[in-house]
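How a chain folds remains the central question behind the approach discussed here. No coordinates are needed to read the tokens, only the vocabulary itself. For completeness, the protein is quoted in full, as a sequence line and a line of structure tokens:
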Amino acid sequence: MYKFIITIDCQPGTRARILERAPEAQAATRAEPGCLAYDFYTCTDDPDRLVFVESWRDEAAHAFHMEQAHTTAFIAFHEQFHRSLTFETVNAATA
């Protein structure tokens, strides 16, 4: 599994604009082959922070996702509102 967390720190007052478009991107992404989960969250401690959590069957499924028109359009749209973006690949912890 290929799983990661994307944290977007938005320019003040722009979070709602991204959230207006996020459900459409979420629905299209969840319909892709290899998508196991695609969710987004608002941060309760910072009103200008969004967190996206994605899980994919493998890196190839994610690479396919990154080539889709709906993906490139959503990224191009929300990039204009970033102060910063952090991409973290995560794995299940083992004891």
